[in-house]
Amino acid sequence: MVEHKIQSGYIKCMDKPYIFTYDGDLLQLVPKDEESIKPYDFLINKNMNYDVLEGDTIGSDKIYFLNCHLKVSLSGYIAKPAGYVCFSNNERKFDVITFKSGIVDYFYRPNHIIDKENTQYDYNTGGAALKLKTFNETSKQIEVEVAGKKAMLTLSVTLPGEPLYMQIDYNLGKPKSIFRLTFNEPVDINEFRMVYMWIYNLMVFLNFRKDISLGKIDVGKTNEENRIEQIGYVYLNEKEKNNKMMIDILSQIVEFRNNESGMHVRNISTLTGMLLEKIVQKTDKYYLSWSKRFYITNGSALHDIGKIGIPEEILNKPGKLTKEEYEIIKEHTVIGEKMLKNLELYQDEPLIKTACEIVRWHHERYDGNGYPDGLKGDEIPISAQIVSIADVYDELVSERVYKEAFSHEKAMEMILNGECGAFNPLLLECLVEIQDRIKNELDGSGSVKKETYKKNIQGIERDMNINTL
Asked: 21 near 15, Cβ under 8 Å?
C-alpha cells in the first residue's frame, strides 16, 4: 500500500453516505449524492462524536479516523481528528505495532554496540578492525500487559553497514531503533488509542521528556510462517500532544506562583484517573468514553489556573483568611474560566471545553452549597465532581503555608463525614474502594510516589536491560 498523509474517499457508516477529504489536519464531509443535499440540513443535522470513524479511501483501503468530533458545516461536517490508521485488505485488527526511529533512537549509545572483545587496534600501524555486536545482542524482550492485553515488548537496534577497518574521518553512521509490541491476540482498531497512549507514556517516563515523537508507526499481523506482514500504517496529528505539553507548562506556572512544590497537579491527575477508572466499572450513567476520561484527566491540571489572577499576598497568606480575602480567593474559578474562554481559536476543542467545566465548577458541592454558581447534584458536570473530590483529598493530606498535613485516615474521615462539603455518594463509594490503592501509590505527604511512576518502567528497564543496549 502507498502511504499518504492526505486522504479522500467515502464514509458509509453514518445516516447517509459522505465523501471525505483530509489534508492532515482538517477532515471535511459532504453528502455523496447531490439529491440528498438540502439547504436546511445544517438545521437538522447534529454535532456527533466518534472515537473511531470508519471510511474507505479512493484506493479501496480501510481508513479509521481517531477521536472525531464532527461539527455541522452547511450540508456536511468538519472535524480535526487526532489522526488515522489506514489498513489494506479490509482489515480492522492487528497483532503487531512497530515504531521506527523517533524517540526510540535516544536508546542508542555508540559504545553499547561495539564488540570490544573482537575489536582490534594495531599500535604500530595505527590500523583498527572495528567489530559491532550482532543484531540479537542488541535486542531485548519482555512480556507486558497493555490495556488488559498480553504482549511481547521488543526493543532492537539495527546496525549500519559494518566497516572492515576504521579509517580517519570514517562516519560510523547512526543505528536506528525499533520498538515493537506483539500481542497474543488480535487488537481491534477501537483499542488503538489505548495502546498508543500506553506506549507514549512509557517513552515519556523512560526519557524524561515531553516533546517526543514516536517516529514512523506501522501495524501488522503475524502470518502462518510466523513472519510479520505489514497491513497498515498510522498518521497522527501532533497538535493534541502539543496541547498536553502546554497544559503541563501552564499548570506548573500556577503551582510556582502558589508557592507549592508542583506535585499538586500530578497528584490531582493521578487521583482523578483512579476515580474515573473506578466509576466506569460501577456505572455507565455518565457516558464516560475513553476520550472523555482522557480530557478530564488532562484538564484537571488546569483546575486552579485562575489563581494567576489572585494577589500573591492573599494566595500565600500563612494565617487564616478574612471574609473579604476568602471572597477574593473564590474568584479564581471565574477568572480561570474566562482565561480559557479567551482562547477563541480553541473553543471547539474538547479538551478546552472539559477544562472550562473543571475550572469553573470544581468548588461546587453536591448539596448546592458550593461556589461560584451554587449548582446542585448532577447539575455539576461529572468532570468537575471528580476533580473536586481529588482536589479536597490532596489539600487535606498535603502541607500548606496555612496548615499541617493530615494523615490519609483523617482525610478520609473528614471527607466521608461531610466536613469538606457534600459529594456525590457514588464518588464517595469509589473513593472508599480505591483507598488502599491511594495509600500504596501516594506517600505520607500526599505526593504521588516516584516509585508509582517508575515501578513498571524500572521493571521494564531491568528485565530488558535497556541501559545496556
From this structure: no
